[in-house]
Amino acid sequence: MSGAEREAQIRRFLPLVRSIARRIHRLVPNAELDDLISEGCVGLLRAVDAFDPERGVSFYHFARKVIMGAVLNGVRRNDPVNERLRRTVRNADRLRYALAQQLGSLPTHAEMEAHDPKLARARIEAHRRAALSLDSPLPHGERVALDRAGDPQNVVALRLERQRVHRAIAALPPRERRVVLMRYFTETRLRDLAEPMHISPQRVSQLHLRAMRHLRETLKQSA
Q1: How far apart are CA 48 and CA 16, in angstroms?
Q2: Which of 17, 111, 115, 216 could form a disulfide with 40 if both were Cys (CB 3.0 to 4.6 A apart)?
Q3: Residue 145 CB-density burial (10 A; 0-12 exposed, 13-18 middle, 19+ buried)
Q4: Does a structural domain hold residue 17?
Q5: How many domains does the chain have?
Q6: For residue range 134-179, what is the model confidence (pLDDT) as tens digits?
């Protein structure tokens, strides 16, 4: 491939680099988009130089994998929390929500850590190493008090409200409870619940609406 052909190939697939970088940026908003694009450009250069048409794979599919790998490697290099810690926390969260479906209530982090001492150390280390961005939202369930001298009664009231919601979810029928836990605790889309639950998407929507109605009624009665 001549220098002009190589340059033309690189320019042709730059939109693919930007597309992949934007996709990863949506998943990892703390990463700088420009940095992701730069990593992707490095991957594109590697793909152009290493591509062998005799392997029977189109350049698009080959370049896509190489660019994606380069961008993800860049994310890993810049992540202050290593992959081992991330994996330990992710696996624990998946197990936590799986137990919630079986037991009908969400185990607390303390309960999970009691069964796995390594989890407590991993969670503390991940929290300690993670950089705090003023432009990014806080982790799910975390709040920053605006008034350090605020009434402790408000803190207790907030905790009691959360416990009340958890009890209301636990009181739902099994399939409604599963829909709520998967939708709001694992952020699974409703239409993606149809296959694992062996029901139609319309039925999932009906169960979701019924669960919301039951939760409103239960919370209203216990108010």
Answers
A1: 13
A2: 17
A3: exposed
A4: yes
A5: 3
A6: 445 555 555 555 554 556 566 566 677 778 888 888 888 888 888 8
**Is 139 part of a structural domain of the chain?**
no
Domain residue limits at 106: 80-134
Q: Among all chains, which residue has been given the structure tokens 């919601």?
A: 165
Q: Are residues 153 and 206 in the same domain?
A: yes
Which residues, other chains included, contact 73 with Cβ-Cβ below 8 Å and sequence gap of 6+?
A: 39
Tell whether 119 and 88 lie within a shared domain.
yes
Question: What whole-number distance in Å separates Cα of residue 182 and Cα of residue 193?
Answer: 8
Alpha-carbon distance of 100 to 169, in angstroms, equals: 10
Angstrom distance (rounded) from CA 96 to CA 105:
10
> Phi and psi (nearest 5°) for 148?
-65, -20
Measured between alpha carbons, how far is 125 from 117 in angstroms, rounded to an integer?
13
Q: How far apart are CA 165 and CA 48, in angstroms?
A: 55
State percent of the chain over pLDDT 70.
80
Confidence of residue 132 (pLDDT cuts 50, 70, 90): very low
How many other C-beta atoms lie within 10 A of the C-beta of residue 70? 22
> In this structure, are 62 and 88 located in the same domain?
no
Answer yes or no: do 207 and 184 share one domain: yes
CA distance 189 to 214: 20
Task: State the pLDDT confidence band at 97, using cuts at 50, 70 and 90.
Answer: confident
Let me know if residue 212 belongs to a domain. Answer: yes
Phi, psi angles (nearest 5°) of residue 56: 80, 15
Q: Are residues 161 and 100 in the same domain?
A: no
Is the pLDDT score of 19 beyond 90?
yes
